[in-house]
Structure formats: structure tokens, C-alpha cells
Specification:
By secondary structure, the chain is α/β, with parallel strands linked by helices. The chain has 4 domains: 66 residues, DNA Methylphosphotriester Repair Domain (3-Layer(aba) Sandwich); 99 residues, Arc Repressor Mutant, subunit A (Orthogonal Bundle), CATH 1.10.10.60; 68 residues; 85 residues, Arc Repressor Mutant, subunit A. Helix content is 45%, strand content 12%. The protein has 15 helices and 10 strands. The protein has a 4-stranded mixed beta sheet with strand order 3-1-2-4. The chain has a 4-stranded mixed beta sheet with strand order 7-6-5-8, sandwiched between helices. A hairpin with a 4-residue loop joins β1 and β2. α6 packs antiparallel against α7 and α13 crosses α14. The longest helix has 18 residues. The radius of gyration is 23 Å and the shape is flat.
Length: 348
Amino acid sequence: MPKIREMYQAVVNRDSSYEGIFYLGVKTTGVFCKPGCRARIPKLENIEFFSSTKSAFAKGYRPCKVCKPENLNGTTPPWINRLNLEIENDRSKKWSDEELKLIGIDPSGVRRWFKKKYDMTFHNYIRKIRLSNAITEMKNGETMTQAAFAQGYESLSGFIDAMKSFTGKTPTESKNVKFLSVDKINTQLGPMIACAMDDGIYLLEFEDRRMLKTQMKRIIRGNKVVPVLSKHKYIKQIEEELQLYFEGKLSEFKTPFKMTGTEFQKSVWNQLLKIPFGETICYEELAARIGNPTAQRAVANANGFNSIGIVIPCHRVIGKDGNLRGYGGKVWRKKKLLDLESANNNAD
């Protein structure tokens, strides 16, 4: 998190560019807020700062009724939506701090947001977009020179070096590269990382999952793809479906997905898809359902390797004694998911 004085100044200024970066708990009222909350500004000595809604809840704070921080969990501020639209309208543009200021956006806020959301600088994000655009143009028949200059590169040598750094290949070789679109989406239980190609979702994991990097590497190597931060129709679709799911309005996902794993793992994941919404089974039963009742440990490992969380409902598998056991997305989320499904299943 930023330094305390910086965070308090953001609170005083009601600076929405810090939303998703930190939360503040007000000791005198017992509520926690977003930095841009319109409620009365508390004194510094009455504030406790948190990096997530989870940590604020854990300390006993309840969400503010004015700014509703529990619904934030990384929600994109309006000024970032506006910037993304500007980027989409001119994907080859080089953005300077002065150009950001001209459209009324604070460059320091942009830097904080992209570091928090994507763990990279804004300019690195733009660079990757320009390179992916160049590859698309070359696939569509443009020459390397045309693609390079169309994306704002002033020399072919600089373009070639940038492309090698991005894909590990020369521009000519990169024409055959398959891209895996990667983006962060927001849910009521925290940000999730989603990856997709034109045949469906390949990964959907909570951002803080310990095995996220391992899962990403497995999918990239298994499908021989290059990850690129970009929007995708299936990422948009799953984000909309997750919103309905958390609102209790959806129990079956329609977004297509692709499994990356061994045949055994896929057999386990296909059985997970057959567990009805609002119900649970134990690991022993899951092993029996795939026709291998003694493979409980292997089944549990396959369950843990599921890379499409919630959609492939590995959270619906619990211990025979009713204990929740483990969950890659954290056990507290597993309980939340099961409670949500149980409540909405009973409501039906």
C-alpha cells in the first residue's frame, strides 16, 4: 500500500484513482470505505488502512452504506473506462503524461492503477497492445515495414527487438503465433484473472491463488500461445455471467471453455460439471464416479489443478465428514460460494 500520509491525502481529496488500492476503516463508526467516499472525512487518528475488503471484514468493520466498498473489489473507475475507450479508438498511439492531462486524467493515477491491476507500467501495457496489433496486421497481409510504422515504430531494428522480446520470435515468425487474451475481471469475492481464445475460456482463477503462475505456464506451454493483455468477447461474457451468478440470478454458465490437462484430469473435471448447483459430494464419491474408487488422492490432486474456477465447480467437493478441506481460491471463498448456491437453490 502507499504511505499513510499519501493515503490520508487521497481520503481528504476523495481521490477515486486510489480505489482498489486501499480501503479505510473508521474506528469511531466501525465502517470501512473506499478512498473516494462522499461521507464525512474522519481524522487520521481514527482511521485504519487495509489492502482488501477481506482484511477489513476480518477486523470486524462493516461496509459503508454510502460508498458500498464490498461491491468494489477492484471495480474499474470511470476515468479508466474512458482511457480504455481512447486506447481502443487509437491502438497505435504513444501516450505521454501531457496527453493524459489533456483529456483530464492524472498520470500518477494511471501509473498506480496499471501497477495494481496488471503489475506493469502503463507504457509497457501500451507497448504490448501495439505489438499484438502489428502481428494481426501482418497476418492480414501487411508487410513487416507497414505494420511497424503503422504502430508508431520509428525503425525496423527497434520493432524487431521489441517483437523478439514479446514473442521470442522474429516479426516474420510471429505471424504464426496464437494469442491468449488475458484480463482481470471483478467479482464480489475479489479480482479474478481470465484467459481466453476464440474457442472459449482457458483460465478463470482468483488473482491471489498461490498456483496461478503455475496454471498460466501450463496453459501457455500446453497450447503453444503467447499471452497478451487484451479484451475478448468470452472474457466479457464470463464477467457478465459471474455478476448474475453472485446476484443469485444464474446457476448454469453458458460461456464456452477449453480444458488443458491430462485425460485423467479431464475425466475428473467432467464429473465436477455434473454436480448440481447447490449440492456437494465427497472426494470418495467423486473417485467412484470416474470408475476408480481407490484413486481418491489422485482425484483430489486433479480437483486442485482445475484452472476454470466456479464454472467447473471444484468448490462443490468436500470431505466425507463435511469439512470443507482445501480450495485453491482460499477456503473462506469456498464457504461463500457454497452458502450462496445453497441459499439460491433453496429459494428456488
